[in-house]
Specification:
- By secondary structure, the chain is of the alpha/beta class.
- 33% of the residues lie in helices and 25% in strands.
- The strands form two sheets. The protein has a six-stranded mixed sheet, with helices on both faces. It has a three-stranded antiparallel sheet with strand order 2-1-4, with helices on one face.
- Bound molecules: adenosine-5'-triphosphate (ATP).
- Residues 11, 14, 16, 34, 36-42, 185 line the site of adenosine-5'-triphosphate.
Length: 237
Amino acid sequence: MIEISGLTKRYGAKLAVDEVTFSVHPGRVTGFLGPNGAGKSTTLRMLLGLDHPTSGTALINGKRYRDLRFPLRTVGALLDGAGPVPERRAVDHLTWMAQSNRISRRRVREVLDLVGLADAAKKQVRKYSLGMTQRLGIAAALLGNPEILVLDEPVNGLDPDGIRWVRGFLRQYAASGRAVLVSSHLMAEMADTADDAVVIARGRIVAHGTLKEITDGHESLESAFFALTGGQAGVAW
Ligand SMILES: Nc1ncnc2c1ncn2[C@@H]1O[C@H](COP(=O)(O)OP(=O)(O)OP(=O)(O)O)[C@@H](O)[C@H]1O
């Protein structure tokens, strides 16, 4: 379980994340939704110990990320821009990650199979398509068979096949009793993927509940999102 409480991040005069509080439960896909610059990545980076909060806490099974003994075994993450070294072969990248968390080589094969990259395991990552790179990122997140998955914009730039694969995969992962937190600004996509949603705008949580609760009284998740975030289609925030 993820518990975020009063989480705040200030960059100089800019309040990027402002008293954010929400939790993410096992067996559910939670969509973390917000326009560009709303504070999604900053929140996830603090959750994963990559940035220090100005105040507040972000806990994974009751602990801060950096206090987890073998973090990959508890929480798997795919973050924007945190890719592997391009010259490395996919299998070597995963083996290197696995070793640092005492995960077996057998598991490396398993996750490559799981994401459909078994045949491309020995290719250099720089020869991968965007879709393959995203699958590799998900394979890395799965290495420790974690009970929690955190994915920042996993379908960005994917073609419809890739998007469908990620959606099916996340639904299946949550159905096996694990907790999935996935950030996105693609409302139609999240409407098909998430059970719960947390909506953030300008660093603050503006809605948190089941998808049904959030869309109640609106035509779609997209129109609920625009009403909540004060935006309009086609207008930059
Ligand atoms: N290192 C930093 N220094 C200064 N400001 C930052 C820094 N990182 C983020 N910000 C600012 O904090 C705000 C939140 O950014 P963040 O990247 O968390 O948003 P986001 O919701 O993930 O957006 P996107 O969907 O575009 O990735 C933005 O205004 C951004 O410019």
